[in-house]
Amino acid sequence: MTMMRFNPHSELADLFDDLFGNQKKEKMERRQYDCSPATNILETNEDFKLQVAIPGVKKEDVKIDLEKNILNITSEKKAEDTVKENEKYTRQEFAYGTFCRSFTLPETIDTDKIKAEVKDGILTVVLPKKEETRISKQISIK
Asked: Under CATH, what is the fold of the domain 24-78+94-133?
Protein backbone atom coordinates (compact mmCIF):
# COMPACT_ATOMS: atom_id res chain seq x y z
CA MET A 1 0.00 0.00 0.00
CA THR A 2 1.40 3.38 -0.98
CA MET A 3 0.83 6.41 1.25
CA MET A 4 0.20 9.66 -0.61
CA ARG A 5 -0.60 13.18 0.52
CA PHE A 6 -4.18 14.15 -0.31
CA ASN A 7 -5.80 17.55 -0.33
CA PRO A 8 -9.58 17.14 -0.72
CA HIS A 9 -9.96 20.79 -1.70
CA SER A 10 -7.57 20.63 -4.65
CA GLU A 11 -10.11 18.88 -6.89
CA LEU A 12 -12.67 21.60 -6.21
CA ALA A 13 -10.12 24.31 -6.96
CA ASP A 14 -9.17 22.51 -10.18
CA LEU A 15 -12.84 22.32 -11.19
CA PHE A 16 -13.28 26.08 -10.67
CA ASP A 17 -10.12 26.75 -12.68
CA ASP A 18 -11.37 24.53 -15.49
CA LEU A 19 -14.85 26.11 -15.53
CA PHE A 20 -13.98 29.77 -15.06
CA GLY A 21 -10.35 29.92 -16.08
CA ASN A 22 -7.59 30.97 -13.78
CA GLN A 23 -8.71 34.50 -12.94
CA LYS A 24 -6.19 35.12 -10.21
CA LYS A 25 -3.79 38.00 -10.44
CA GLU A 26 -0.31 37.19 -11.70
CA LYS A 27 1.12 37.45 -8.18
CA MET A 28 -1.37 34.87 -6.99
CA GLU A 29 -0.48 32.45 -9.79
CA ARG A 30 2.61 31.32 -7.97
CA ARG A 31 1.57 29.28 -4.97
CA GLN A 32 3.67 29.48 -1.86
CA TYR A 33 6.15 26.66 -1.43
CA ASP A 34 4.89 24.17 1.13
CA CYS A 35 6.18 25.54 4.44
CA SER A 36 7.07 22.11 5.70
CA PRO A 37 8.88 19.81 3.27
CA ALA A 38 8.54 16.08 3.80
CA THR A 39 11.16 14.78 6.24
CA ASN A 40 12.38 11.34 7.26
CA ILE A 41 14.36 10.77 10.46
CA LEU A 42 16.42 7.59 10.70
CA GLU A 43 18.32 6.36 13.76
CA THR A 44 21.21 3.92 14.01
CA ASN A 45 23.47 3.09 16.92
CA GLU A 46 25.99 5.63 15.55
CA ASP A 47 23.86 8.55 14.37
CA PHE A 48 20.58 10.13 13.31
CA LYS A 49 19.94 11.02 9.66
CA LEU A 50 17.51 13.73 8.59
CA GLN A 51 16.30 13.39 5.01
CA VAL A 52 14.50 16.49 3.73
CA ALA A 53 12.79 16.52 0.32
CA ILE A 54 13.86 19.68 -1.50
CA PRO A 55 13.41 18.95 -5.22
CA GLY A 56 14.47 21.78 -7.49
CA VAL A 57 16.32 23.64 -4.72
CA LYS A 58 19.98 24.41 -5.36
CA LYS A 59 22.60 23.58 -2.74
CA GLU A 60 23.58 27.26 -2.59
CA ASP A 61 20.03 28.19 -1.60
CA VAL A 62 19.98 25.95 1.51
CA LYS A 63 21.17 27.26 4.88
CA ILE A 64 21.71 25.08 7.96
CA ASP A 65 22.28 26.76 11.33
CA LEU A 66 22.77 25.35 14.79
CA GLU A 67 21.74 27.56 17.72
CA LYS A 68 22.33 25.81 21.04
CA ASN A 69 20.51 22.52 20.46
CA ILE A 70 18.17 23.76 17.69
CA LEU A 71 19.03 22.79 14.11
CA ASN A 72 17.40 25.17 11.59
CA ILE A 73 17.15 24.35 7.89
CA THR A 74 16.01 27.23 5.69
CA SER A 75 15.78 27.60 1.95
CA GLU A 76 14.11 29.43 -0.85
CA LYS A 77 12.83 27.88 -4.04
CA LYS A 78 12.95 30.68 -6.58
CA ALA A 79 10.65 30.93 -9.56
CA GLU A 80 12.30 30.98 -12.94
CA ASP A 81 10.60 33.21 -15.47
CA THR A 82 10.75 31.01 -18.54
CA VAL A 83 7.49 32.25 -20.02
CA LYS A 84 7.95 33.96 -23.35
CA GLU A 85 6.13 37.13 -24.33
CA ASN A 86 3.53 35.27 -26.40
CA GLU A 87 2.85 32.64 -23.68
CA LYS A 88 0.75 32.58 -20.54
CA TYR A 89 -0.01 29.94 -17.97
CA THR A 90 -3.42 28.29 -18.09
CA ARG A 91 -2.47 26.30 -14.99
CA GLN A 92 0.53 26.73 -12.71
CA GLU A 93 1.07 24.15 -9.99
CA PHE A 94 4.78 24.50 -9.29
CA ALA A 95 5.32 25.94 -5.82
CA TYR A 96 7.87 28.63 -4.95
CA GLY A 97 8.82 30.45 -1.78
CA THR A 98 10.71 29.91 1.44
CA PHE A 99 10.63 27.35 4.19
CA CYS A 100 12.19 26.90 7.60
CA ARG A 101 12.31 23.62 9.45
CA SER A 102 13.62 23.39 13.03
CA PHE A 103 14.66 20.31 14.97
CA THR A 104 15.51 20.11 18.68
CA LEU A 105 18.59 17.94 18.99
CA PRO A 106 19.21 15.69 21.98
CA GLU A 107 22.32 16.28 24.09
CA THR A 108 23.73 13.02 22.77
CA ILE A 109 24.58 14.60 19.38
CA ASP A 110 28.22 15.46 18.62
CA THR A 111 27.52 18.87 17.07
CA ASP A 112 31.13 19.32 15.86
CA LYS A 113 30.75 16.37 13.49
CA ILE A 114 27.42 17.20 11.80
CA LYS A 115 27.59 16.77 8.01
CA ALA A 116 25.15 17.55 5.21
CA GLU A 117 24.83 16.84 1.50
CA VAL A 118 22.25 17.23 -1.26
CA LYS A 119 21.73 14.49 -3.83
CA ASP A 120 18.82 13.97 -6.22
CA GLY A 121 16.61 16.53 -4.44
CA ILE A 122 17.15 15.03 -0.98
CA LEU A 123 19.06 16.95 1.71
CA THR A 124 20.66 14.47 4.11
CA VAL A 125 21.97 15.77 7.44
CA VAL A 126 24.00 13.26 9.45
CA LEU A 127 23.91 13.87 13.21
CA PRO A 128 26.54 11.64 14.85
CA LYS A 129 25.98 10.53 18.42
CA LYS A 130 28.67 11.27 20.98
CA GLU A 131 31.03 8.35 21.45
CA GLU A 132 30.09 7.73 25.08
CA THR A 133 26.37 7.55 24.26
CA ARG A 134 26.63 5.02 21.45
CA ILE A 135 28.67 2.34 23.13
CA SER A 136 26.70 -0.83 23.41
CA LYS A 137 28.17 -3.94 24.94
CA GLN A 138 27.08 -7.17 26.47
CA ILE A 139 27.59 -7.62 30.18
CA SER A 140 28.38 -11.09 31.42
CA ILE A 141 26.70 -12.43 34.52
CA LYS A 142 28.92 -13.93 37.25
From this structure: Immunoglobulin-like (2.60.40)
Show the low-confidence residues of the chain (pLDDT under 70): 1-35, 133-137
What are the Cα distances from residue 45, in Å, to 48, 110, 128, 134, 136?
8, 13, 9, 6, 8
Helix (H, G, I), strand (E, B) or coil at 83: coil
**Tens digit of each residue's pLDDT (9 = 90 or more) over 8-41:** 666 666 666 666 665 554 334 444 444 678 999 9
pLDDT at 29: 41
Q: Which of 85, 83, 81, 98 is nearest to 31 (CA)?
A: 98
Closest of 79, 73, 81 to residue 125, by C-alpha: 73
Length of the chain: 142
| 124: number of Cβ within 10 Å | 15
Q: How far is CA 93 from the centre of its chain?
A: 18
